[in-house]
Write a structure and sequence with these properties.
The protein has eleven helices and twelve strands. By secondary structure, it is α/β, with parallel strands linked by helices. The strands form four sheets. The chain has a five-stranded mixed sheet. A three-stranded antiparallel sheet has the order 10-11-12. Strands 2-3 form a two-stranded antiparallel sheet.
Length: 256
């Protein structure tokens, strides 16, 4: 899983930025080149002064998102590569990741409506986010769902739409990535989704705290250095295989 962290809500952002007016920030450091764009410039990156002061909320500009994703271009073009944004804001990074995945779906499965639908859902399943502020996580879910539905040309009444809604409610978490706790003070968990073919999906749930131990387990002097990841990371729950229609039913049940 690739973790992205530049925008959204975070701590100590004031060390790099100072406010110039109520809706924008100016970076204190000198401009540097980043391709054909200045690395830092005056731009609108905030919602309000108060949110910056209270939560360190500063968003990443679109051009910088694209440049960063180009550094892992091959992964962004893999439908089943997993991306986690631990400070996802309203989805600046995750929206672009999804768009790149959908471009890959179109190339590989665009001629088969059934496969296109299944792999589009898989691409959505492989996107994860954590966000501290409730309005941001709601916006992030809505933004990703809009792109998902627009690509498949589906309405809210469609089972695929409901399945996508359910997946986003699971994958995008209202919580704190630093404490690894949800807004209602539960341990953050993530679902690993896999596509088994013929419209069938498998879900396994893992604790974020266990997943973040990967680097320490793989260190050369670790007792676990020679163990495979499948031997270390075990899901605490595995679900029966499901179809998009069954996920849609799960969404309906959760909303009641």
């Amino acid at each position: 899983m690739i973790s992205l962290n530049l925008g959204g809500t975070k701590n100590n952002i004031g060390q790099k930025y100072h406010l110039t007016h109520s809706e924008g920030v100016e970076v204190d450091t000198p401009h540097e080149d980043f391709g054909d764009k200045p690395l830092y410039s005056t731009m609108s990156l905030t919602k309000s002064k108060q949110r910056v002061a209270d939560h360190g909320e500063v968003f990443t500009p679109e051009w910088m998102v694209e440049a960063m994703l180009d550094l892992v271009k091959g992964e962004t073009e893999r439908i089943d590569s997993r991306f986690l944004e631990p400070a996802c804001g309203s989805g600046n990074f995750l929206v672009k990741v999804l768009q790149r995945k959908l471009a890959a779906v179109e190339v590989k499965y665009g001629k088969s409506e059934f496969e296109k639908q299944q792999y589009t859902l898989l691409g959505l399943m492989c996107i994860y986010g954590i966000e501290l502020l409730a309005d941001n996580i709601a916006e992030c879910r809505a933004n990703l769902l809009e792109i998902f539905a627009g690509y498949l040309n589906i309405e809210e009444s469609d089972d695929l739409y409901k399945a996508g809604f359910y997946v986003l409610s699971v994958n995008l978490v209202h919580g704190d990535a630093l404490t690894m706790r949800t807004a209602d003070d539960k341990a953050i968990t993530f679902a690993e989704w896999g596509y088994l073919g013929k419209g069938k999906f498998q879900r396994r749930d893992f604790l974020l705290g266990d997943l973040t131990g990967s680097s320490s387990y793989s260190a050369e002097d670790s007792l676990f250095a020679n163990m495979g990841k499948h031997e270390i990371f075990k899901p605490f729950k595995t679900y029966p295989t499901v179809t998009a229609k069954e996920l849609a039913a799960a969404e309906m049940g959760a909303s009641k």
